[in-house]
Design a protein that fits this description.
The complex is a heterodimer of chains A (119) and B (219).
Chain A lengths: L2 H4 L7 H16 L9 H11 L12 H10 L10 H4 L11 H22 L1
Helix pairs in contact in A: 2-4
Chain B lengths: L1 E5 L4 E6 L5 E8 L2 H15 L9 E7 L2 E7 L6 H5 L9 H20 L12 E3 L5 E3 L24 E3 L14 H11 L17 E2 L2 E3 L9
Antiparallel strand pairs in B: 1-2, 2-3, 3-5, 4-5, 4-9, 6-7, 8-10
The chains are: A mainly alpha (119), B alpha+beta (219).
């Protein structure tokens, strides 16, 4: 939840940009930030400290890190909108839909393998 | 119908339209409060058309449930990928692709002066062809802060019709006789509703609601 939402301030379309940033962190690290804290504590931390940096920054390109950081700028006015973000250099690295398929199939296979183990 | 997903808002089932194409049916429990929200959200979905937003087809009220028929996304949601993080990790180009596709949908939504408010991996749906689309707005309204915002983006459409051209035949294990009895019983109106359901006493009806309806007045 974006800081402006938590604080009960007026908010606009950029709350979606914040959520995208959180989701990208989740794609990179497997879970969103502050998962180790209870929900209310996590909300408090977001408003006071913002979002912690990626756990293993050396794993990621500077474009990727900048993209995440842009999405998660605490000040609404400084956070870019969708139009601006679509021009971000990180997105130039995007694979094709065909190259995205394997991750879907691998996850499906992993899920099936895990459920077979349970029985 | 085969259950393919479950969320806070309801369960999602696989069904087929009359031409045999797969569709997803989201079933949600209705009550007075949720109906108001769902009507707003359906009208938003109905008036949204973008390659990165899951297509909305039709809705039906079936007993005390709302069934929303939508484009079927064979790859499930992004959450299902993230849940396998221990063994399957996305590469930067894959994350860039997913982000780019999501942003294209967001740009479209934001240009219509709307806010999605519930962007998360559960709402990012994946196609078997690798397509990435923002999923339903319907049922996304579980967040507590919704009530004071959702009237600010009443969509442009001045009316919404829940049922469209009786396009859908929900494929279930209904016994045909019961199904036909239902047809006879419920499809005599000027907008015939072509809905067969597996429940023997299913009541389904098409709703046509105007946004000027008192249901939507005030916030």
């Amino acid at each position: 939840m974006a800081p402006e939402l938590i604080r009960g301030h007026d908010y606009g379309t950029k709350v979606d940009i914040w959520s995208l940033g959180i989701m990208v962190m989740e794609m990179a690290e497997g879970e969103p930030p502050y998962m180790e804290f209870p929900p209310l504590r996590a909300l408090f931390l977001i408003t006071t400290k913002g979002i912690p940096p990626l756990k293993e920054p050396e794993k990621w390109s500077s474009d990727f890190q900048d993209f995440v950081n842009q999405c998660l700028i605490k000040e609404v006015d400084d956070r870019p909108g969708a139009e601006e973000l679509l021009k971000h250099p990180f997105l130039k690295r995007a694979c094709s839909p065909e190259e995205f398929v394997p991750v879907i199939e691998e996850a499906r296979a992993a899920k099936e393998a895990a459920s077979r183990l349970q029985f | 119908m085969k259950k393919i997903g479950e969320g806070a808002a309801g369960e999602v089932f696989l069904a087929f339209d009359k031409s045999g194409n797969k569709v997803a049916v989201k079933k949600m429990q209705l009550n007075g409060e949720s109906l108001k929200l769902l009507i707003t959200e359906i009208s938003i979905m109905k008036s949204s058309s973008h390659p990165n937003i899951v297509n909305y087809y039709a809705s039906y009220i079936v007993e005390d449930q709302l069934w929303v028929v939508m484009e079927f996304m064979g790859g499930g949601c992004l959450t299902e990928v993230l849940e396998q993080f221990d063994s399957v990790q996305m590469t930067e180009p894959q994350m860039a692709f997913a982000s780019n596709e999501t942003l294209k949908a967001l740009l479209y939504i934001h240009q219509l002066h709307r806010i999605h408010r519930d962007i998360k991996s559960d709402n990012i749906l994946l196609g078997d062809d690798g397509s990435v689309k923002i999923g339903t707005f319907v049922g996304a309204s579980t967040s507590f802060f919704l009530s004071f915002i959702h009237y600010s983006f009443i969509p442009l459409a001045n009316s919404l019709v829940f049922h469209e051209n009786s396009r859908f035949w929900l494929c279930c294990s209904a016994d045909q006789e019961a199904t036909e009895a239902q047809h006879g019983r419920w499809c005599t109106s000027s907008t015939p509703l072509d809905l067969c359901a597996s429940l023997s006493h299913t009541r389904a009806r098409a709703l046509s609601l105007s946004l000027a309806d008192p249901l939507l007045d005030g916030a």
